[in-house]
Write a structure and sequence with these properties.
The protein is of the alpha/beta class and about 375 residues long. It has two domains: about 220 residues, FAD/NAD(P)-binding domain (3-Layer(bba) Sandwich); about 120 residues, D-Amino Acid Oxidase, Chain A, domain 2 (2-Layer Sandwich). About 35% of the residues lie in helices and about 30% in strands. Strands 3, 4, 5, 10, 11, 12, 13, 14 and 15 form a nine-stranded mixed beta sheet that branches. Strands 1, 2, 6, 7, 8, 9, 16 and 17 form an eight-stranded mixed beta sheet that branches. The longest helix is centred in the C-terminal third of the chain and has 32 residues. The radius of gyration is 21 Å and the shape is globular. The protein starts with a strand and ends in a 6-residue tail after the last helix. The relative contact order is 0.18. It binds flavin-adenine dinucleotide. The site of flavin-adenine dinucleotide has 39 residues, from helix 1, strand 3, helix 5, strand 13 and helix 9.
């Protein structure tokens, strides 16, 4: 089926980047189409800790976070695989909310703001021709003047767009897996803990509904060494850290099975591909240790909505817009992404993690500075 409307903007992917961009462009009076392959509400592998830098932005999208009474997180605890523990204040802090709740609330806000938001609609191809995009999806063909790729860390569209990083097969330690549970456990409301283990780390913090998110990043190699069994890997690798052993044995697990994603990679990606403007993880995934991928996706949405042109038919205006976005993207994110990748390496091996924690312990202000480097200013 071919839809006849030509939208000002089509957004592929309804995660935090896509949903907030859709709302912001619609608030400015643009006709916006949002296409999401899943059906809301749904769970996502994510630590569900959102840096406070994006609190005001989310409220400006129409979300009343104070009414939702989200837990505010002000303290960070980090442990090495052998149990050496370090605690610090979080300079800016964050709040906890499940993606199940948050993405659904934002999807509802999209509809309320006038976005044509389709769920259960997978995009298969995007073609740019004569200054117009044609998007082929499970719900038919759509046309748009501008198209945004907000489809996350891994999608069929990366292969369709022939993106360079899809051609290189990564094995072993540079190929990560993410695992998430929701649990109930006695644990402080205002604390996020990151517990390290060999080639990975696991975060725990409070979300909505009196639940806690327990989410970790490990390597494909760790899993392969344990007969590709999550439980076996947890027992043999994660439980060497006494904090994790305690959490896993005392928690009440709320899913029958964990939510798992594979082939998580952190290499740089081009910000624009064949005139499709990328944001969020589609433009570069930040190591979750830096805790801010969600805020970065929303910050990119904020940037785009502020520079989105009013003349949508001019090729010159498009070229200027693309240049300006690339420049702003670099200014806002490239240092944070590079810092995130280096920081991630420091927490790769059990010995190095222990050493970093022991060295940082007497210098709380240095630790705060490092944490600050991974956070942006409020927007
Ligand atoms: C283990 C782990 C823990 C993390 N913990 C945190 C944390 O605590 N705090 C934090 O800020 N960040 C965290 N992150 C990072 C954070 O989850 C991401 O940076 C953030 O979700 C990016 O948002 P996004 O909008 O770019 O993509 P996503 O939220 O992934 O959304 C992309 C959407 O696109 C859809 N999609 C994909 N392909 C198609 C298609 N072809 N057609 C239609 N729809 C499509 C997907 O279904 C999905 O809903 C973590 C990441 C990992 C891996």
């Amino acid at each position: 089926m071919t839809h006849t409307i030509v939208y000002d903007a089509a957004i592929i992917g309804g995660g935090l980047g896509g949903l907030t961009l859709a709302i912001k462009l619609a608030q400015k009076g643009h006709s916006v189409l949002l296409l999401e392959k899943e059906t809301y509400p749904f769970h996502k592998v994510c630590g569900e800790y959102i840096s406070l830098e994006s609190y005001d932005f989310l409220e400006s999208c129409g979300l009343n976070l104070s009414d939702l009474q989200v837990p505010i997180i002000t303290q960070l605890g980090v442990s090495a695989p052998n149990g050496t523990y370090l605690k610090s204040e979080l300079p800016l802090g964050g709040f906890g909310i499940s993606r199940f709740t948050l993405d659904k609330l934002l999807f509802d806000l999209c509809l309320k703001t006038g976005v044509i938001a389709l769920q259960n609609c997978k995009v298969n191809t995007v073609e740019f021709n004569q200054n117009l995009f044609t998007i082929q999806s499970s719900e038919g063909l759509f046309k748009a003047r501008y198209t945004f790729g907000a489809y996350g860390k891994k999608s069929n569209l990366d292969i369709h767009l022939n993106r360079d990083f899809t051609k290189e097969i990564k094995q072993g330690k540079s190929n990560y897996i993410g695992v998430k549970y929701h649990i109930e456990i006695p644990f402080p409301d205002n604390l996020i803990e990151l517990h390290n283990f060999e080639d990975g780390y696991c975060g725990i913090s409070k979300i909505d509904g009196n639940k806690y998110c327990l989410c970790y990043l490990s390597t494909q190699e760790n899993l392969s060494k344990n007969s590709n069994q999550i439980k076996e890997m947890e027992r043999n690798i994660l439980f060497k850290n006494p904090y994790l052993k305690k959490i896993f044995s005392e928690a009440k697990f709320l899913y029958q099975k964990p939510l798992v994603i594979s082939q998580v990679r952190f290499e740089p990606k081009p910000v624009i591909e064949q005139h499709v403007i990328m944001l969020g993880d589609a433009s570069g995934l930040i190591a979750p240790l830096c805790g801010n991928g969600m805020s970065m996706a929303m910050r990119a949405a904020d940037i785009i909505s502020k520079i989105f042109p009013s003349d949508l038919e001019s090729e010159k205006v498009r070229a200027d817009f693309e240049r300006q976005y690339k420049k702003l993207w670099k200014a806002n994110f490239s240092t944070r992404l590079a810092f995130g990748r280096s920081f991630q390496k420091l927490f790769g091996s059990a010995k190095i993690t222990w050493l970093v924690i022991v060295l940082l312990k007497p210098f709380p202000s240095l630790l705060k500075k490092l944490i600050r480097l991974s956070h942006g200013e409020k927007f």
